Structures are given as structure tokens and as C-alpha cells.
Amino acid sequence: MFTNTDINFEALKRKAYNGRWATLEDGIIPLTAADPDFRMSEEIEKGIIEYIKDGYLSYGPFSGIPEFKKSVAKHFNVEKKGSFTPDNVLAVNSAAQGMFLIAKYVLQPGDEAIIFDPVDFLFKKTVDAVGGTIRLCPVDSKTGDIDFEMLVSLISPKTKLISICNPHNPVGRVYSKEVLKKISEIAAAHDLWVMSDEIWSDIVYDNIEFNTYSSVSEEAKRKSFTVFGFSKSFGIAGLRIGAVLCNDQELLDDFTEKSNFNSTIEGVSTLSQIAASVAIEKAKPWFKDFLTHLQHNRDLAYAMLNNSGILAPNHPEATFVIFPKIQNGLSSDAFAQHVLQEGKVAIVPGSERWFGKGAEGHVRICFSTSHEILKEGLHRIINSF
């Protein structure tokens, strides 16, 4: 499994957008958007087909169908040390939408949100979209280490939210229980909300322990939301399915009401929820093989880049992206353009647009493809100079 022969390139060239196969000229290898090159598991495909066999696609409950809520709660409780009930789960139209709805619920125009730098661009975009003000807290671009003194110094009377990305995109850090507990203590001391984006939390290597944020302390359960999605782990990005979880039921009920889910304005495709439920309940064996493949690719990417003299890699504990530092003095944009033109490989520059000011001097390379494609792509990058 997970070799070149398992990839349907014709399908990818028709369907894989977002900077990938369908948007690039033939001959270019995309190591860009964080989306697997492999098809979803057969269990998910069969689950979708089985669900529509009777010909009905009726309205579901506005907050999510029971199968979905039950499976997500169980997944977090078993795999991530959570303590959620099915009622603590709200189905949303992608993790990205969950982030936006949380920002909209928590922030008024002019309120401040602290986000880490570098981090995925959606953190900034969702705060900007609701009129909030960003305060950037630098993290180490190789390790993801947080400067807690800096974090505290950024808090003002206008601060309402700390947003964390765990595991961290693009650095690949898994934050320990101790680190998360420290964040919860700071948030509680200043009566702040916390949003934890945990979309990458299935893809963790070397048996490193993952703790969902709300599990680390009683303080963490207060005024916190967790965001989850299925696009990374199970390759179903096109179904646009995610979840918001919250241990405080009154809080989640209020969030659900104010986010317009108690009507037909909001709500998520039942088909997408069925696919996600089947993924959790029946596709875990497929996922474990996928995770093993990704860890081998992580090791390959690290080894090749570490010996390249061109890029100095970090060592991701999670995710399927690597975030090496440019060694030859080029800017992130110039490096990515050079690699595209001379090496015929598309990568994501560590520019402010994508990851914030702290990403400059880096590029992000996605390795959720075959061993063969990754090796060829990295060879092209290294040999293009």
C-alpha cells in the first residue's frame, strides 16, 4: 500500500485543487497543500454507498447526526485522553469553519486574540474576518517552543482569546501536557478563551503522547473550544467535515444557537458525517498503515534534507509537513519560485501570507505522497541549485 501504483494520477489531475495536481502543468510535482495523494479507504467508500442505497438524503439534526457525535466523542476519549459526551460535539462544515465560528463567538471588533508565529494562515484570517486584532507570540521555528514570558506580556485588557495549534502546523510540534497546562493557567488567570485546533492530532509519530487541550486541567475545560477535522487523517477534504467540541454543555448550546445551527441556515451534509463516522469506526487499520508510511516518509525527508547543504530540516513529531530553513540566503518566495522553475517542484514558501512573519527563511514541504514521488521531488529541489 501507499506506493506509486496506489495513486490514481488521472483522478488527482481532475480533482486535486488547492495548489496541487489539478492546478499545475504536467511534469510538476506538488509537495504543497496538506492533502494526501492516496484515495480514501475502501471502508469509507462502502459506508457512503451503503448510506445512500435506500435513496433518502433527508435533513439531519442541526447539531449533527447521532452516529457522528458518538464516534467523535469516543475517538477523543480513547485516543486523546478526552472526557467528552456525544452532546459535547457539534458537526461543522470543516475545521476551518469551526475556527471562524469560534472567533465570531468570542471576539467583538477591536478585541485582541493571541496567535503563535509562525502558524497556519487560517488563525490570522479568522480573527481578521470578525474584526479582531492580532497579537503575535513568536515560537521557535524549529522546535515550536513557546516563550511564556512573551505570551503573558502580550495580554492586555482587550485580550479575549489565545489560539493554539496542536500539533503545530508548520513546525510539527506536539505540545506536552505540561505546556498545555501552563497555557490553561495563564488563560484562567486572565479570564481568556482558548481555542485549540487539533486537526493534526491523529498524525503523531514515535508513539508520542497526545493530550487534547481540555483534558489537562479543570482550568482548561473552562472557556475552551476544540476544533477537529478529517481531511488530513482520512483524505476526505472535499467532504468538508469537522467538529467543534466543548466540555461545558451550556456554553456549547449557546455557541450552537448564536452560530445559527438551530435552523436551516447552518448544518452539515449527513453524507459527510457518515463518511467521518465510518472513518473513525472502520478505517483505523487503513489509517495505522498510512501513519507508518508517513513516518517512513518523514524519516526520508529529514535524512535527504539534512545532508543537502541547501535546506536544514526540523524533525516533525506530527503532521505530514516538514519546515526546513533555507541555507543559501534566498528569501522564502525566491527559493520556492526557483524550485518551481528549475526543479519542477511546487512547495509552499514560508512567507507572511501563509504562516506569518516568523516563517520567513523557511519553506514547507508536504510528504503525504508515495516514497517514490517524495524522493524524486526532494532530489529535484536539492539538484536545482
Automatic annotation (TrEMBL):
Check the record and name the Gene3D superfamilies matching this protein: Aspartate Aminotransferase, domain 1 (3.90.1150.10), Type I PLP-dependent aspartate aminotransferase-like (Major domain) (3.40.640.10)
Aminotransferase class I/classII large domain location is 28-381
Q: Which CDD domains match?
A: AAT_like
Q: Does the keyword Electron transport apply?
A: no
Origin: domain of life = Bacteria
Q: Which cofactor does it need?
A: pyridoxal 5'-phosphate
Recorded hits in PANTHER family, A to Z, give: ASPARTATE AMINOTRANSFERASE
The record's comment on protein family reads:
Belongs to the class-I pyridoxal-phosphate-dependent aminotransferase family.
Put simply, this protein is called: Aminotransferase
Provenance organism: Chryseobacterium daecheongense
